[in-house]
Amino acid sequence: MHKAQISSKQAEDFFQLYKQIVESDFKEWSAESKTEWLTDKYSLNFWKVALENGLPVLVAFDDKKMVGYVALESITFGVAYLGWIGVLKEYRKNKLGTQLMKEMVNWCIKNGLHKIELETQKKELLPFFEKLGYVLEGIRKNSWQHLDNYMFGKTLQ
What we know:
By secondary structure, the protein is of the alpha+beta class. It has helices at residues 11-25, 31-41, 44-52, 96-110, 126-131, and strands at residues 2-5, 57-62, 65-76, 79-87, 115-120, 135-140, 149-155.
């Protein structure tokens, strides 16, 4: 298993992995929401532009197959917004998500960023982020999809 920053040339393959994880892991979202997400807000074009603009999308590969990722969505005034982490179900429970998150922290430090922020609607992920040193900074109640959003931050050394 190896991990690498992908380029915009790999956007289509990445989008297929992203789409597969969105469709399988976000059961609480409506079909309309998923469609909007995949065709508008986070479409293939969104990822191509993000990659062309240098936002990091770190991908784990099993041989040549993409099996997991972590992606920054934006960088503003030294703060990275980590919008996405996903690992195919059959590759979970082997620390792949942890490895990807640590590599993203290293990328942020190397690029002079001072903080990473993220949020999740999945309460079961709170211990995962806390174990990695993220601090719960707030909860937006009844937010997107009528779900609570748990907002985390991590100050970088």
